[in-house]
Amino acid sequence: MPYKDPEKRKQQAKKYYKQHRERILAYTHDWWQRNKKEQLKKQHLRYQKRKHLFAERRHRYILFKAYQNRLEVLKAYSGEKPKCACCGEEHIEFLTVDHINGRKDVPETGQRLYRWLKINNYPEGFQVLCMNCNYAKGKFGNCPHSGKEWKPEYEYYRDKRNVLPCTSLGAQIK
User: Fold this and answer.
1) Prediction pTM value
2) Is 113 a residue whose pLDDT tops 50?
């Protein structure tokens, strides 16, 4: 009985399946046992043709989840609109999580750090900084925006070596 209405067709198919369920399942099982090898081979070939699509899809999904985790951590440490605790930078691409007391407590960085923070319920000792402020804090001890005494890079090198990093040019600091 062909039905033009798809809803009626669905109802008829359900009714038929209920009435003949055992016979349909037995036939399906027998068919699978007879054709198992051939069907698995076809499935494998289909997978081989399309596996690059699965890899691309998985890669996009991983990047998406990484972005979501990062955004969640940034929001947890700096509020609904993530921003640098030092200079107020709001571009998500420039923000990162800073270990306030250095990395000795938590050796994780990057995505591992974000997962660790999430699993451990966002512990104290972390803050959101932009990459510039984080770099300056790590390299020189504080950031120029912090209001603390700031040493420019050439003074930092003067204290360390008494010469500029470009010593091959013979430049000396006076």
Assistant:
1) 0.59
2) yes
